[in-house]
Amino acid sequence: MTIDARPHKFTLDTSTTALLVIDLQNDFLHPEGFCCAMHGVETSTVERVRSIIPRIVGVIDWARRSGVKVVYTRESHAPDFSDVTPSKKVRYENAGYPIGAPGKFGGFLIRGDSSSALIDELAPIDGEWQYDKPGQGAFYATTLEADLRAAGIDTLLFTGVTTECCVLATFRQAADLGFFTLLLEDCCAAFEPREHEAALDVLLGENGAIGWVATSDALVRSAMPRALDGHDVPVP
Amino acid sequence: MTIDARPHKFTLDTSTTALLVIDLQNDFLHPEGFCCAMHGVETSTVERVRSIIPRIVGVIDWARRSGVKVVYTRESHAPDFSDVTPSKKVRYENAGYPIGAPGKFGGFLIRGDSSSALIDELAPIDGEWQYDKPGQGAFYATTLEADLRAAGIDTLLFTGVTTECCVLATFRQAADLGFFTLLLEDCCAAFEPREHEAALDVLLGENGAIGWVATSDALVRSAMPRALDGHDVPVP
To answer: What's the mean per-residue pLDDT of chain B?
Structure first.
């Protein structure tokens, strides 16, 4: 099937496609989680960032009905910090959110605390994959690439937070690794709108040499005829 | 030594630092090379993009005098296209510059043709490293990471083209791999200024959690006292 994407049309086969749901964790998206509750973050910002959640839930529903593998990631670290590189330690301290900093749900990005858990709006089902990842890019120090190859997946759809940080890092890794990569722009967000837009400008750079961008609506509309065998069911 | 960088100061030890010179190739930067000679590219654009060359040559000179390892990369592919992924083949065709497309100096990005060779303004010396890379990120399908680790290098300075494409991809990989990463903004360029700016916005995103940005002037000024043992010599 072919999707009306930017800067060029995007073709995919649902049987060799996976949907990546990147870092929809309490630390980033719960209203009382570390990032949303940080000093100075406006309620309107929290609402804007969280507005991607129902859209992503809709795309997950579409994926399940279409035979598209759903894959969830969590940025997280061992409680003893053994998988935090010196560079990442300094960067996250500089940014004002040291790894392990105390929050309502536990240490920031600490594996095993509910702080780093998936948000309640997600409910992975059997056969869907979940990865804890210590990098921003989900291919760093995980078995994601090997698992996707073993499953014969060559195409990846990107959703999650934040657009310019973990989503873009994962996208660029995937493109180099040879996957066909489509970012669903209305299913990604950043706390600073300018940073979200910058990531899109990067992805749309070089007239398509970097990757593809589309809306979730364009994806689901394009997919309906094939995914649903012509039956008329509500669009998620 | 400490450099006046954005969004936070950057500290480095020249003995464990490498300078990456990314993709300064005829295909991208020679006035008659593939990209500069493409239909519609203005002379002023070519001049703007090429204006980074003397600045990079200056930083290379500083690096050599400071004990900083200089590393050059070339985006390139085997003449039989065996290292072109299906995704990259489609992306570069979409973009209007298929890999292998004929140009004045040979096939676009073809290894062994002078099209993909380093520009004449660079003259690597013994002990400097050169990599042919089939990805946008220089860590994909190369021995760069292993070589840097073996040499005890933990800090990387980024220069080259284009900012949002191969420079950013390499930077993000390096950050995840645990390197301390500083982009020299006046030593990077893109054919579209907006794409260069977008890459900087990404790197400056999340208040420093992604990486650091500085000018080459800030680097060299900070480095002088240590690198040159207090002797007063011309700044490159």
So the answer is: 95
DSSP 8-state class, residue B68: P
| Interface with chain B: mutation pick from A149, A182, A201, highest number of B CBs within 10 Å | A201
Query: In this model, does residue A151 exceed pLDDT 80?
Result: yes
As a whole number of angstroms, the distance between CA A231 and CA A229 comes to 6
Evaluate whether B122 touches B57 at the Cβ level (below 8 Å). yes
A124, pLDDT greater than 70 = yes
Q: What is the ipTM metric for this complex?
A: 0.93
| A166 annotated active-site | yes
DSSP codes of every residue in B1-47: -EE--BSS-EE--GGGEEEEEE--BHHHHSTTSTTTTSTT--HHHHH
d(CA A157, CA B24): 32
> Is the pLDDT higher at A235 or at B225?
B225
All structural domains of chain A: 2-77+117-222 (3.40.50.850)
| Closest residue in A to B136 (Cα–Cα) | A176
The answer to whether A195 contacts B172, with C-beta atoms less than 8 Å apart, is no
Tokens of B189: 């360029």
As a whole number of angstroms, the distance between CA B31 and CA A13 comes to 41
CA distance B148 to B155: 9
Closest residue in A to B204 (Cα) is A195
Residue ranges of alpha helices (H) inside chain B are 26-29, 43-50, 52-66, 86-94, 144-150, 168-176, 193-203, 216-227
Q: Contact, A216 vs A184, CB < 8 A?
A: yes
Cα(A108)–Cα(A81) distance, integer angstroms: 11
pLDDT confidence of residue B235 = 45
- In the predicted model, what is the mean pLDDT of residues B115-130? 98
Task: Please name which of B177, B130, B182 lies closest in space to residue B22, comparing C-alpha atoms.
Answer: B130
Residues of A in Cβ contact (< 8 Å) with B176: 135-137, 140, 169
CA distance B76 to B107: 10
Query: What does the pLDDT read at residue A224?
Result: 66
Q: Which of B94, B137, B208 sits opposite A91 (nearest CB)?
A: B208
Which H or E run contains A219? helix A216-227
- Burial code (b: 16+ CB inside 10 Å, e: under 16) for B89-123 equals bbbbebbebbbbbebebbbbbbbebbbbbbbeebe
